[in-house]
Design a protein that fits this description.
Strand content: 5-15%
Number of strands: 4
Oligomer: single chain
Strand order of the largest sheet: 2-1-3-4
Order of helices and strands: HEEEEHHHH
Radius of gyration: 27 Å
Length: about 160
């Protein structure tokens, strides 16, 4: 158990650096131990103190590391992930629209968002819906070609005018 605990502490120190904790910052590390009662476990303070900031690190009997966070912290993490996911989605949609050379970006954006909302509404499994943004924009371009600049047509007109 001692060797597993030492190895786990090394992992905790590495993880702490990755999540931005100061190397010298005191960490609350707990051992999780079995008891005679299968409905109870014993948490023992290994290092740090009970008043330290989150996360708390818990080492189980197999040397696996767990963390304990308050509900507020967990909700903030989830909120941050949702915001990042939305920003990522918007950036991908923006990139896809620009790659298809829109005449009016905002018009294409509105049509694309309407199409995406339709797909979400018609989907049975809303949580795992993966939208192919490039396909959505290409379908819009086929359905509403007037929203996009036709480069082939434009270039051929330009070449014809140059010949005159």
């Amino acid at each position: 158990m001692k060797e597993k605990t030492l190895n786990a502490i090394d992992k905790i120190n590495i993880l702490s650096k990755k999540i931005g904790m100061d190397e010298n910052q005191e960490k609350t590390i707990l051992n999780l131990e079995d008891t005679d009662n299968p409905d109870r476990k014993l948490l023992t303070l290994k290092s740090g103190n009970w008043d330290n900031e989150e996360p708390w690190f818990i080492i189980d009997k197999d040397g696996k590391i767990h963390t304990m966070l308050s509900l507020d912290t967990l909700l903030n993490i989830i909120k941050s992930l949702r915001i990042a996911q939305e920003e990522n989605f918007n950036l991908k949609l923006e990139k896809s629209i620009w790659q298809n050379v829109p005449i009016d970006f905002q018009d294409v954006w509105v049509v694309a968002m309407d199409e995406i909302k339709k797909q979400l509404k018609n989907s049975k499994d809303k949580k795992s819906l993966n939208i192919d943004i490039d396909k959505v924009v290409k379908d819009i371009k086929k359905k509403y070609p007037n929203l996009f600049l036709n480069l082939d047509k434009y270039l051929s007109q330009t070449n014809q005018e140059d010949m005159i």
